[in-house]
């Protein structure tokens, strides 16, 4: 998920530099959504983990 967020952020940056405002805004929105989902999954994984490990 972090990879997709970075990809969309780079696409948004390049599109903004080239003057494609609509594409830049849409890509930035997708980057924000992917980043939010990735952080939520990371936090849930941290708190709930895999459970008790038996050696």
UniProtKB/TrEMBL annotation:
Subcellular localization(s) per the UniProt record: Cell membrane
HAMAP family: UPF0391
Pfam families: DUF1328 (PF07043)
Family: Belongs to the UPF0391 family.
GO cellular component: plasma membrane
Keywords: Cell membrane, Membrane, Transmembrane, Transmembrane helix
Chain segments annotated as transmembrane: 31-49
Membrane-topology annotation of the record: Single-pass membrane protein
Protein name per its UniProtKB record: UPF0391 membrane protein DI555_12615
């Amino acid at each position: 998920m972090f990879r997709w967020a970075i990809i969309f952020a780079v696409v948004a940056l390049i599109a903004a530099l080239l003057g494609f405002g609509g594409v830049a805004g849409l890509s930035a929105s997708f980057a924000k959504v992917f980043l939010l989902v990735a952080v939520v999954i990371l936090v849930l994984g941290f708190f709930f983990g895999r459970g008790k490990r038996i050696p």
